[in-house]
Design a protein that fits this description.
Elements: H1 2-17, H2 27-31, H3 38-48, H4 53-66, H5 70-74, H6 78-85, H7 92-107, H8 116-119, H9 127-138, H10 147-156, H11 167-177, H12 183-196, H13 215-219, E1 236-246, E2 251-255, E3 266-267, E4 288-289, E5 294-297, E6 302-312, E7 322-324, H14 336-347
Parallel strand pairs: 1-6
Antiparallel strand pairs: 2-3, 2-7, 4-6, 5-6
């Protein structure tokens, strides 16, 4: 009964304070019978993994303007989708995005499955995304747990077990609170609570609808939760990026292998990324080493790229990659680390 009352309090708060997001059907429209588009729910959830709402908004709007349905996305060229994704990071998501869209289009008639079990069979769809689509798109009482929800649950129950060990416990708390009535709105409400009120730093406890029953508020421990196992220090890897420009303005680029980091993305030919990279120029040229490195942080390591530039004649052929003529070249199609290298070269 206590959980039911908590869910009701949160839904009342959400009805007044729900965020206006381009992929969301707000509580008022939903009450009027407007149903969410599963494609937009799925697309937004994939984009939001490891990324913030402000960063995702322009990408989401551009994707849905260009590919308004999952069947449109399924029919897109791989290179076009990868270029449109450039800058969002975690590029395996973009590859799985296409795989999933094509499975939905070919095996499900362009309609996302309406059960959590069937959603889990789709490429790139894990427990969180399956739960989010099931709850938000189909109003099924699925438990949806992201970082915001973990933080809210840890504070609500004053749970001091550190993450990631605490995940099963926090998921259990979240499942007990998920209501049968309006589960889609509830899933979005608890995420909004974590994003706007129960924030990582300086939570606005005075505005929280759950403050009267929050164990961490009573104990004075909200600011220190959730506990986390200390992160290991990230190693540093080194690499070399070769930026060759032909005298007509064309740039030498290559597409990275589909598997691995930045898989399928367009980029500058370069060396392996390791502790002692070996020279691997893609074309014979007089290479100039820039004084500044292109630095970027990935999930598991820091990368420091030595940037080398060269101007080459029209008749010279590369051993790797191909020249992209200036009208067809767009720096925005490059992943962030490759854009950083380009910015250094352009600045020089």
């Amino acid at each position: 009964m206590r959980e039911a009352a908590r869910a009701e309090d949160l839904l009342e708060w959400y009805d007044r304070h729900a965020r206006d997001l381009p992929w969301r059907i707000g509580p008022r429209a939903r009450a009027a019978g407007v149903r969410p588009d599963p494609y937009r729910v799925w697309l937004s959830e994939i984009m939001l993994q490891q990324t913030t709402v402000p960063a995702v908004k322009p990408y989401f709007e551009a994707f849905t303007a260009r590919w308004p349905t999952v069947s449109d996305l399924a029919a897109a060229e791989d290179a076009d989708v990868m270029a449109a994704w450039a800058g969002l990071g975690y590029y395996a998501r973009a590859r799985n995005l296409l795989k999933c869209a094509r499975v939905v289009a070919t095996e499900h008639g362009g309609i996302f499955p309406d059960s959590q079990e069937a959603l889990l069979q789709l490429p790139g769809v894990g427990p969180y995304t399956a739960g989010a689509v099931a709850a938000i798109a189909y109003d099924l009482p699925a438990t949806v747990v992201d970082g915001n929800v973990e933080r809210v649950m840890a504070r609500l129950h004053d749970e001091h077990t550190p993450l990631p060990d605490a995940k099963p416990v926090l998921t259990g708390y979240a499942a007990a609170l998920t209501p049968d009535e309006r589960p889609g709105c509830y899933a979005q409400a608890v995420m909004d609570l974590g994003a706007t009120i129960c924030t990582p730093r300086n939570p606005a406890c005075g505005l929280c609808p759950w403050r009267p029953s929050c164990a961490a508020w009573d104990a004075g421990t909200a600011a220190e939760l959730p506990k986390k196992v200390p992160k290991k220090r990230k190693p540093v890897r080194l690499g070399i990026a070769y930026l060759a420009r032909r005298v007509d303005g064309a740039w030498l680029l290559e597409r990275r292998p589909d598997k691995g980091l930045l898989g399928g993305m367009l980029g500058w030919p370069g060396s392996e990324w390791n502790e002692a990279p070996e020279e691997a120029p893609p074309i014979r040229a007089e290479w100039k080493t820039l004084p500044e490195e292109a630095r970027h942080t990935f999930t598991h390591f820091h990368l420091r790229l030595t940037v080398k530039t060269a101007l080459v004649p029209m008749e010279r052929l590369p051993s790797r990659g191909e020249f992209v003529e200036l009208p067809a070249f767009s720096p925005s199609d490059l992943p962030t680390v490759m854009r950083k290298a380009f910015d250094l070269a352009r600045g020089s």
